Amino acid sequence: MSEGKKPGFFGRLFGRGNQQQPQADAETEEALKRATHEVATSTEELEAFKERRAAEETQAEIDRIAAEAVPPEPAPEPPAPPEEAPPPPPAEVETPAHEAPPTPEEIAEGVPPAPAEPEPEHRREPVDDASYPPGPPETTLDYVEDVQEAAEESAATPSAEAPAPKQGWFQRLASGLKRSSDQITGGITSVFTKRKLDAATLDELEDVLLQADLGMDTTSAIVETLRRDRFNRDISGEDVRAVLSDEVGKALTPVARPLVIDTAHKPFVILMVGVNGSGKTTTIGKLAQKFAAEGRTVMLAAGDTFRAAAIEQLEIWGRRTGAPVVAKPAGSDASGLAFDAVTRARAEGKDVLIIDTAGRLQNRDELMSELEKIIRVIRKVDPTAPHAVLLTLDATTGQNALNQVEIFGKRAGVTGLVMTKLDGTARGGILVAIARRFGLPVHFIGVGEGVDDLQPFQASDFAAAIAGKEQ
Ligand SMILES: Nc1nc2c(ncn2[C@@H]2O[C@H](COP(=O)(O)OP(=O)(O)OP(=O)(O)O)[C@@H](O)[C@H]2O)c(=O)[nH]1
User: How far apart are CA 329 and CA 440, in angstroms?
Assistant: First the structure.
């Protein structure tokens, strides 16, 4: 909820309206707001799903707490006897969202209510300090509240304005990377106040580039190029941006490799892995759409068997893209599901099978072992599979992404990367550091939640956009 915004019904109900929001993460909050807004304006089907889920999960709680928290209207007559003390305020009103009672789904599935401490394994946990949202926006009460407010506002506003024309990919990429680009170019501008390049300016530039998560190698390359070519000579911020764009392009060109579907494999099995909330399921939906548009037959496997909502989310993508979805009830064994999916996709002659997996933090050894097991079991059906293991990286996690690539790479044999949420961060430079360190192919990047916001990765576009250059 933005600063100064009047708390809505749920905020007031839960006493959150006047609380100080954590300062640490204005960036995450803004990304969440944007994501929330985009989700709210998504297609009807997804909207209906989210509303239904939000309603299911909150209705019982709302009714109960509303009944307890909202005192009855004082009856004008007869006046209440003065000696009657008001009832004590119900303790539940102060219950924070993360201690919410079990959802109807959890109750139905016999899942015990989540304790506040420690966090259960498969909830979204903070990955990198406080910069991680507590869960998908559609599962939070703030989301429900914002959707309701947005719906009221849009109902009140006459839609006289024509919709904005659809932007091309470079424009979307540039606006998605604007925060990263502003961070870097703003720093460059503030450093290059003198006309001649000297040692102090180069030191300051080094700091700016390192803070933008570009990594030591690329930072050194930029600084050394400038020292060699421009030392003690006239230089402008624009000159520096040109060198920046060149060096970023050089670092990224070797890793900008498309995901090639080898038709010798039927199905071509793609395993999607990553930490909680990094965008696996959404990316699967977008990829399914792309493959279907290319005329390929696609099957999806709802391997995130921990979250009923993830299964439902994938089923919606399946309906949208015409891809059958192999699913089992929440709580089923993920390896068994992967086995069934490969067997069925092979029997039905599908071109591509994309297997979702539950989000897991890379430092959870037992969960990483489970991932290894899924791969072993898939190989019982097809020893050459999986043919691609794609790691989705949430750009907002910054430096932690390096560790994710390292561990998932070792444990799951990652063959390529997808970086999502570049629109929600000023830390997009991390992709450059990852490229230099690991040399793994970067197949796609995402700058929003829409289907068209995930595109094949192109080094020159990214380099130009992050350096704030026109294309
Ligand atoms: N702004 C933005 N949001 C994104 C992008 N990609 C995914 N998201 C959103 O990120 C949230 C989490 O995405 P999911 O696909 O559910 O993530 P997941 O990795 O499957 O999550 P788990 O199943 O919990 O591990 C959703 O709200 C997505 O819409 C992106 O490129 N930009």
Answer: 35
- Our answer on whether the CB atom of 134 is closer than 6 Å to any ligand 1 atom is no
Domain positions in the chain: 9-69+90-150, 169-255, 268-459
State the pLDDT confidence band at 247, using cuts at 50, 70 and 90.
very high
Q: What is the CATH number of domain 169-255?
A: 1.20.120.140
Is the C-beta atom of 310 inside 6 A of ligand 1?
Answer: yes
Q: Where are the beta strands (DSSP E) in 218-306?
A: 268-273, 298-301
CATH level 3 topology of 268-459: Rossmann fold (3.40.50)
279 C-beta closer than 6 A to ligand 1: yes
Q: Which two tokens stand for residue 414?
A: 């990652």
In whole angstroms, what is the distance from residue 177 CA to residue 248 CA?
A: 14
Atom of ligand 1 nearest to the CA of 122: 24
Q: What are the helix (H) ranges across 294-412?
A: 308-321, 334-347, 365-381, 400-412
Can you tell me which atom of ligand 1 is nearest the CA of 35?
1
ipTM value: 0.94
Ramachandran assignment for 322, one of left (phi > 0), alpha (psi -120 to 50 degrees), beta (any other): left
179 Cβ inside 6 Å of ligand 1: no
pLDDT in tens, 136-148: 444 344 443 454 4
Pairing outcome for strands 325-326 and 352-355: unpaired
Which residue has its alpha carbon closest to ligand 1 atom 1?
A: 448
Closest CA to 260 of 351, 166, 160: 351
